[in-house]
């Protein structure tokens, strides 16, 4: 399985800058951990950050420098690159894996699980039965959707595991699960605004 | 600079730690202050950043990447961790550059110093309106929406300026794509 749908350059820039809102950063980190291409781009974006950092006017230090501690081997970092359902950056949120998620029914063939997010934005898992579509919605601000299992189809194409849909806020889209169903993680900078009659049904109690 | 890292990693040379501290400390402090920390907190975070560099040096001694980039990523991650307590996800290791070194890098052949100079030159050549959005993202820590609000422009304009700026930097590096 190859990742073919990537993060937008503007998203990668903010991610490397450390200025992406929390929910979006979680999904971006999950994609980057699995995606060789985006990891290479992030390395270049970090170089841009380093160039700006190096040109900051120095702020004088007022304390004497601390004593050098004994160097110790830091715990070895988990190697990114493997394509797995729960990308390491999401490990803390999805400790038990996708099969242990307690789903909440929100519409025929559609389930949701909210992930706790104290920071900016909202983060949730969506599970769709084959061919079931999420109601058409637009977004205030940005949205990132990362496929974890199965595949998602929308007007812009097909998304398999590891693929991310990074859409501008002027894009109206109605993604549907493909024949095998789909589980994805969705980050919104702001809650999505559903359109149409189903919207009025969903909005009051699901906070999407 | 790479020599400094090697001295830290191989010999645990206390003089090397002092050099590291004096070279990067003032800039890490300035970075933390730009991103909202008061002077005292910024200095604490600068110390912590450089202690992390010191502790992890052995892991990155073979890294062909820039030491400045490595210090920047550690400072960035620490700031996310400390100034915004709500982060739900685990950051990627700061050694991503090193770990990614097996990946094909379009600019692989270029010496690191030259790469850094090209990035700096490309940044300097950007039109002011593109420099502005890039600086707001990297130095002020503003999200796309916050930049749009600050500059009173559509979100799409902010993103397209970022994309154009990046494409210019990328092509200055001789990126293929």
Number of strands of chain A: 9
Shape of chain A: elongated
- Write down the secondary-structure element order of chain A: HHHEEEEEEEEEH
> What is the CATH class name of chain A?
Mainly Beta
Q: Mind describing the biggest β-sheet of chain B?
A: none
Pair of chains with the largest interface and how many residues each contributes: A-B, 77 and 89 residues
By CATH, the topology of chain A is Jelly Rolls
- What is the CATH fold-level name of the largest domain in chain B? Rna Polymerase Sigma Factor, Chain: A
Briefly note the structural class of the backbone of chain B: mainly alpha
Radius of gyration of chain A: 19 Å
The tally of strands of chain B reads: 0
Rg of chain B from C-alpha positions? Answer: 17 Å
What is the domain tally of chain B? 2
Distance between the termini of chain A: 30 Å
* End-to-end distance of chain B: 31 Å
Could you describe the largest sheet of chain A, including whether it forms a barrel? 7 strands, antiparallel
Characterization of this structure:
The complex is a heterodimer of chains A (208) and B (177). With 208 residues, chain A is of the alpha+beta class. Chain A contains four helices and nine strands; from the N terminus they run αααβββββββββα. In chain A, the strands form two sheets. In chain A, strands 1, 2, 3, 5, 6, 7 and 8 form a seven-stranded antiparallel sheet that branches. Chain A has a two-stranded antiparallel ribbon with strand order 4-9. In chain A, strand 2 (110-115) and strand 3 (122-128) form a beta hairpin. Chain A is elongated, with a radius of gyration of 19 Å. By secondary structure, chain B is an all-alpha fold. Chain B has two domains: 2-102, RNA polymerase sigma factor, region 2, helix turn helix motif (Rna Polymerase Sigma Factor, Chain: A); 112-172, Winged helix-like DNA-binding domain superfamily/Winged helix DNA-binding domain (Arc Repressor Mutant, subunit A, Orthogonal Bundle), CATH 1.10.10. In chain B, helix 2 crosses helix 3 (39-60), helix 2 (14-34) crosses helix 4 (67-83) and helix 8 crosses helix 9 (155-172). Classes of the chains: A alpha+beta (208), B mainly alpha (177). At the A-B interface, helix 1, helix 2 and helix 3 of A face helix 2, helix 3, helix 4, helix 5 and helix 6 of B.
């Amino acid at each position: 399985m190859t990742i073919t749908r990537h993060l937008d350059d503007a998203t990668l820039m903010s991610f490397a800058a450390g200025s992406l809102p929390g929910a979006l950063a979680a999904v971006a980190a999950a994609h980057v951990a699995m995606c060789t291409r985006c990891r290479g781009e992030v390395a270049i974006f970090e170089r841009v950050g380093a160039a700006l950092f190096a040109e900051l006017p120095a702020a004088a230090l007022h304390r004497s420098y601390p004593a050098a501690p004994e160097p110790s081997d830091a715990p070895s970092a988990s190697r990114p690159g493997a394509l797995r359902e729960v990308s390491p950056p999401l490990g803390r949120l999805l400790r038990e894996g996708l099969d242990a998620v307690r789903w909440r029914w929100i519409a025929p063939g559609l389930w949701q699980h909210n992930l706790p997010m104290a920071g900016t934005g909202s983060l949730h898992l969506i599970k769709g039965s084959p061919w079931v579509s999420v109601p058409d919605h637009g977004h205030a601000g940005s949205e990132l959707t990362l496929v974890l299992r199965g595949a998602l189809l929308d007007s812009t194409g097909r998304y398999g595991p590891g693929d991310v849909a990074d859409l501008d806020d002027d894009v109206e889209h109605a993604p549907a699960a493909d024949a095998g169903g789909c589980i994805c993680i969705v980050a919104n900078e702001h809650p999505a605004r559903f359109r149409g009659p189903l919207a009025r049904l969903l909005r009051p109690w699901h906070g999407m | 600079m790479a020599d400094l890292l090697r001295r830290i990693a191989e010999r645990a040379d206390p003089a090397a730690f002092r050099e590291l501290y004096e070279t990067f400390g003032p800039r890490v402090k300035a970075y933390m202050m730009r991103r909202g920390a008061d002077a005292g907190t910024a200095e604490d975070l600068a110390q912590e950043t450089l202690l992390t560099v010191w502790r992890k040096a052995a892991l990155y001694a073979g890294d062909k990447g820039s030491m400045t980039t490595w210090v920047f990523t550690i400072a960035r991650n620490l700031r996310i961790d400390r100034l915004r307590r709500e982060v739900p996800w685990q950051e990627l290791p700061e050694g991503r550059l090193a770990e990614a070194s097996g990946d094909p890098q379009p600019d692989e052949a270029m010496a690191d110093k030259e790469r850094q100079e090209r990035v700096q030159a490309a940044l300097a050549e950007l039109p002011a309106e593109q420099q502005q959005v890039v600086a707001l993202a990297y130095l002020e820590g503003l999200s796309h929406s916050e930049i749009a609000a600050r500059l009173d422009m559509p979100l799409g304009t902010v993103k397209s300026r970022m994309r154009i700026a990046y494409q210019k930097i990328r092509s200055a590096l001789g990126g293929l794509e």
